[in-house]
Amino acid sequence: MAEQDLYPVPPEWAAQARYDAAGYETLYGRSIADPGSFWLEQARRLDWIKRPEIAGDWSFDKADFHINWFADGKLNVSANCLDRHLAKRGDEIALIWEPDAPSDAPRRFTYRELHAEVCTFANVLKAQGVVKGDRVTIYLPMIPEAAFAVLACARIGAIHSVVFGGFSPEALAGRIEDCRSTIVITADEGRRGGKRVALKANVDAAAETAPGLKTVIVVRATGGAVTMHPRDVWYHEAAEGVPATCPPEPMGAEDPLFILYTSGSTGKPKGVMHTSGGYLLWASLTHELAFDYRPGTVWWCAADIGWVTGHTYILYGPLANGATTLMYEGLPNWPDASRIWQVVDRHKVHTIFTAPTALRALMKDGDDFVAMTDRSSLKLLGTVGEPINPEAWRWYHDVVGEGRCPIIDTWWQTETGGAMIAPMPGATALKPGSATNPMPGVDPQLVDPEGRVLTGPAEGNLVIARSWPGQMRGVWGDRDRFFQTYFTTYPGKYTTGDGARRDVDGYWWITGRVDDVINVSGHRMGTAEVESALVLHPHVAEAAVVGMPHDIKGQGIYAYVTLNAGVDPHPDLHRELIVWVRKEIGPIAAPDKLQFAPGLPKTRSGKIMRRILRKIAEGDVSSLGDTSTLADPAVVDDLVANRVE
Ligand code: 6R9
Fold first, then answer.
1. How far is the C-alpha of 120 from the C-alpha of 189, rounded, in Å?
2. Half-sphere exposure of 62 (CA within 13 A, CB side)
3. Of 7, 518, 612, 633, which has the fewest Cβ atoms less than 10 A away?
C-alpha cells in the first residue's frame, strides 16, 4: 500500500477547524499524561444534575476488575440531547426525516418539537407501567418515532434494546428473552427500497417463543393491515391527550442507558451494555472532534438505528451537540444510484457518514449517477464499519467529494461506544485506507500472539491499554462473559478482535477481524451464529461457516454443510437451507455460497480446521498448507473438487 500517498489538510480546513496538527498533539498528549483532570474538564461539555468530581476509576485486572467513569455524577441523557438546547436553539431543526420514496415529503422537527414528541412518548411508556431500569425492546423502521422512542427511554431511565428491523422473529425473540423485556415498540410495517417489511407480524411470530412479552406498542407507519392482539396498543391512541412534558429522570452516570446485541465468536449474540455519562460524553466528544461539527450545518449518518453507528451518530452524539441530524428511511441506491446524492442536495447536507459497502455498490453503478447531482453543500465525508479499500476511498474523495472534502475513516466497535481511531479534518493528513490516529484518551497498542507489545512500525493484534469513557460496561446478564471475552487473551488490556498495522509515520491501518467474526456489508456476523442456525434444520448434521472476499459486501458468507445420512443433496434442499438461515437470523445472514460436504476437515481432536475452509472458499486451493494432521485428509479433495464458484 502506498504509504507515501498523503492527502494534506486542505487550507480551508486548516484555517477554520477547532484543532490543527499541533492542537491535536497537545490535546492527545494531555489526555494521556493527565487523564484525571483532562476528563473532568471534558465532562463540562455535558449538563449535569450533579457534576462529577471523579473521572475514570477502573482496573482491567482480574482480581479488581471494574470500569467506572464520573461515577458520582448525575445527569439525564435526553435532557442533554433536548432540554438544554431549548433556550438557545429551540426553533432550529433537530431532526430531518427523509422518506423512502423521493416523491413523499420529508418531515422536520425543531428541538422544541422533538422535545414535545419525546416527552409524549415517555408519558405513553410510563402509562404502560415502564419504570427506571426496565428494558424496552425497540423494533422499528427508520421513522421519526424510532428517535422519539429511544430518547423517551433515556428520559425515564428505561434501558432500550434496539433490534435491527432486518432481524427475523427468532432473532428478535432471543433478544427479548435475553434481557427479559416485557415490552416491544414496533410499527405496522417498515418501508425500504419500495418494499414493505412486516414488522408487526414479525413481533407476533416472536411472541410465540418470547412468553415474557406482555405489551406491544404499535406505531402506524404505512397503514398496512395488522392483527391486533390483547397485548397490542396503538401508539396514536395511547398518545391521545397525553401531556407533552415529562420531567427527566435523574440518572447516575453509571446507570445503564442501553443494551445493543452484537455478534461475537460464539453462537449467541452478546448484549453489549453502555451506561449514561461516559457514553454520552464519548458520543458528543468524538462527533465534535472527528467531524469538527458546527451547529447550523446538516449532518447525515446514513446508518440504521439498529446498529451502534445509528445510536451514537444519528442520535446521541449529534443531538448532544445541538446538531441538525438527518434520518433516512430508505436505501442509498433506490430508485437509482443517484438517490443518496439527491438526498444530499435536497437537504444541503454538509457531512455524510456511510459505509464502504455502500460506496462500493454505488461505485459499481458508475460515475454518471454522481455527476448528475450538485453536492456543493458537501464539505466532509465519513466512513465506518469495515476497512475501506483505497480504490473506494479515492472514488469517494475524487468523484463524490470532487477532491475538496477530507475523508474521515473512523475505526470503532459496538463495544467502544464511539470513534476510537479517526482523523480530525483540520489536523490530520490522510492516507487512503488508514484510520490514522487515536482519539484523545485512546491508547492503542499492537501485541503479538504471546502478548508482547510491538513498537515502531509493526503488524499485530490491536488492543487498547487503558479505559476510555465510552467503553462498554458489561455483557447483559453475564458479568463473567464480559471479562472472559475481552480481558483474558491479553491480560490487563482490552482485546478488540481486530488486527492492525502501524506504519512508519505512526498511522494505524485496520486489517480486519482476527477472530471468528465476519463483516458482511459492515454488519457483524458470528460464523458460529450462522452454523447454529443451519444445524437447527432437521436434515443438517453439521455446518462450518467462513468468510470469503466479496466485491461489494467486503466479506460474503460461505457455508459448508454435512447432511444427515441418507439425505439427498438436492438443489431444492440447497435453496431451502439458504432461505432457512434468512428466516432464522435475517437476510443479512443468508449464505452467499453453500456447499454440501460429505465431511469437514477436522483435527484428530475433532476441531474443524477453518484455515483450510477459508482457503477453499477464497479459491486459493494451491496453498492449503499442512493437511497431514487431519483425521481424514481425503475430505479436502472432495471439498476442493466440489467448491462453489
Ligand atoms: C462501528 C461498527 C465493529 C467491527 C470492528 C472492525 C470493523 C468498523 C472500521 C472497521 C476498519 C474501520 N470496523 N469500522 N474496520 N476500518 N473504519 O462498525 O461497530 O458493528 O460492532 O463492528 O467492524 O472489524 O471490530 P460493529
1. 22
2. 8
3. 633
For the chain, what is the total number of helices (H) and then of strands (E)? 22, 31
Spatial separation of the C-alpha atoms in residues 446 and 458, rounded to whole Å? 7
- Residue type for position 399: V
* Region of residue 133 (left: phi > 0; alpha: psi -120 to 50; beta: else): left
Q: Determine if ligand 1 sits within 6 Å of the CB of residue 213.
A: no
Residue 4: the pLDDT is: 61
Give the mean pLDDT of 305-319: 98
Gap between the Cα atoms of 460 and 415, Å rounded: 20
Instruction: Write the DSSP assignment of 517-585 as a string of letters.
Output: EEEETTEEEEHHHHHHHHHTSTTEEEEEEEEEEETTTEEEEEEEEEEPTT----HHHHHHHHHHHHHHT
Q: 411 CA distance to ligand 1 centroid (A)?
A: 6
- pLDDT, tens digit, for every residue of 553-588? 999 999 999 999 899 999 999 999 999 999 999 999
Is the reported ipTM for this assembly greater than 0.95? yes
- Measured in Å, residue 553 CA sits from the centre of ligand 1 at 14
Q: Are strands 56-59 and 232-234 parallel, antiparallel or unpaired?
A: unpaired
Alpha helices, H only, 53-198: 77-81, 83-89, 111-127, 144-156, 169-178
Residue with cell 455498490: 361
Question: What would the mean pLDDT of 164-173 be, rounded to a whole number?
Answer: 95
Q: Cα dist. 50→44, 119, 492, 523 in Å?
A: 11, 22, 31, 38
Average pLDDT estimate for 440-459: 97
Cell 401531556 -> residue = 243
Rounded CA gap, 375 and 554, in Å? 26
Identify each DSSP E strand in 235-313 by its residue range. 251-252, 256-262, 270-275, 298-301
CB 304 near ligand 1, within 6 Å: no
Which residue's alpha carbon is at the smallest distance from atom 2 of ligand 1?
A: 413
CB atoms under 10 Å from CB of 452, counted, come to 11
**Cis geometry, peptide bond prior to residue 335 (ω within 30 degrees of 0):** yes
- Strand segments (E) across 514-553: 517-520, 523-526, 540-550
User: Is residue 298 lining ligand 1, measured as CB closer than 6 Å?
Assistant: no
Going by alpha carbons, the residue nearest to atom 26 of ligand 1 is 413
